[in-house]
Structure formats: structure tokens, C-alpha cells
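G., the chain you wanted modeled:
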Amino acid sequence: MKTEKIGETKLICDFMGYEFIAERLGYMRPLVRFNKVTRGATFHQSWDQLMPIVEKIQTLAIAIEISFSLATICKICYKKGHHFEWITVEDNDRIGCVYSACLEFIKWYNSNPESQGKER
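Predicted structure as C-alpha cells:
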């Protein structure tokens, strides 16, 4: 697995409170423990693993919009100071689009300590 994806997996695990176990030699995906189950992390490929992240972001962001048409567009609105900002990702890969937008939000969230712990 690429080092970039391992870093992304660690970032998601920290955000979600999952335990990042480690990358096993010869294993294609790092192992993650969530809900008392250990499995290979496929956040970028599995709607079952990605949707809990979307649901958590919904509690922290102002709005999240996902639209499927000719391309997939995922928008996440969050409050920055006294105004609103949007993360917008457009891609032909449906799950990749939502995954990328979630990663961008998590990076923003982690870099803004004043936003942490504030659910809508």
C-alpha cells in the first residue's frame, strides 16, 4: 500500500477514534480495529467503511451535499471564524470523490483546534 494511503488511514483512524494497528508485511492494507472488529482498511473503496465518517462529519459541519450526475460532486460547508467556507470535490469516481472531500475536511478540522468538539 502506498505511504500516502497509510497516512490517510492513520488520519481517519485518529478522527474516528479507531485503532490503527499497523501494516503487515505482505498484506495489502493496514489493519484497523473499530467496533471491536479488526479488518483491512478500505475507506477509499468501501461505502460501508466510508459512511460512518460522512455521518460524523455531518455532526461537525454545517452541511454536506453529495450529488451524482455526469460526475460526482461532494461539498462540505463549515464555519471558519465568522463566515462559511466550502470544500468542493468533483470526480468521476463516486466513492473517491466523497473520500477526498472527507479527507480535506478532516485535515481542516485537525488544523483548527477551535472547531474541535463543536457538534451542530
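The beta strands are 19-22, 31-34, 37-40, 63-68, 72-80, 83-91.

Shout if anything looks off.
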